[in-house]
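Attaching the record inline, Q. Sequence:
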Amino acid sequence: MKKTLVSFGALALVGMAGAAGFAEEFPDAQKTLPGSMGWMQGFPPAQEKTLHASDGTFFEFPALRYSVNHIREFYPTRNVSSGKGKKYSVKQKLDPKIDSVTFTPWDSGKTMTFEESLDANYTDGIIVMHKGKIVYEKYPAGLKPDGLHAAMSVSKSFTGTVASILVAEGKLDPSKKVTDYIPELKNSGYADATVRQVMDMTTAIKYSEDYNDPNAEIWAYSAAGNVFRPINYRGPQNYYEYLATVKKLPDSEHGEAFGYRTINTELLAWICSRVTGQGLAEMVSEMIWKPLGAHYDGYYQLDPSGIAFAGGGFDLNLRDMAMFGEMMRNGGKLNGKQIIPEKAVKDIASGGSSEEYKAAFAKSDYTKLKGWSYHNMWWITNNSHGAYMARGVHGQAIYIDPAAEMVIARFASTHYASNKYIDPLSIPAYEAVAEYLMNK
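Structure, as predicted:
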């Protein structure tokens, strides 16, 4: 597949470096700092330092270390307004000892400090909150405190939160069929799926995101959302038209197994839009960003028809993302104000903890995440702390640990896109910081 057919939607899922390059040697974090690389500097920038979205070079490593902070310069976007109302307040009491917290990465006999893990994960910015205060905040690479960064598939959890709010408010019925809301899909593989199965990614849809397979369905999905596709393209014109073409897996039923499919998030956003009469950017703004008192507007990347990329297109500020996580940790409250229904948060945090959910998840290829489950577009660890996560390729994360009263928000730009290469360094690091904070 030519790069000119690769949309940011595709790049945000796996990235041009791809998981297949795991054995390849890459320059370390300090040698690939965006400021020292000289990307897009000058009037005009030198040809060899100019990045292009049309051919995918803007998202090849190490160029992606610049691009994740500048997506709006490459693609059309729609604003997520933070409004002009009261902004959240947060106290800061930094704990330098967090840098020295040690942990052992999975499948490794060598310990590492939390500070060492930052460069190991090509961290662009990270915040640790404990009991409502910021106790750790660093920006090791190109991100600035007031900057915006691509959240990648963390975006899915925002879509899932919007849907959870609508369910809690009685406006969306997860037991209904997809076609009750989107009759246009009556001839698709989604025809007999429920909204709940879409929310939990247990749809039995014939759809692969294997970038090593030139026939994988991801390429057709990507082309449908690509604003730079060639003039002779004759396929689906946007994400929604693509959804009408998907087929059901033969000899499979919806609800049996977890399968991580980004198109489920696109469909969920479409369903929510049908319920509210609003686009995704407006829903996130009105339901979450304005009530939260976010300090900065965010934005969504758009497809050729102006449809927001629900599965990976949200860009936002790190502190705002951390405070969103803190609001979730507090049952939907922040600064004493109920931002989203407590019922929605409880369902996200614990609604997927049953053995049924664990069994569905165990049928997936996430073998390292033993005992985990997936619910409402959030990843549920089912560990003793009741932790749950929003996760995105190249190292994006919100980690919420209710028992430790801790939230970690991280933006990164590692060359390994897939979380299966990032988790061995990240999850034990989060768990170690949680234990440290609980034992202070």
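The radius of gyration is 20 Å. Residues 1-5, 14-23 have pLDDT under 50 and may be disordered.

More tomorrow.
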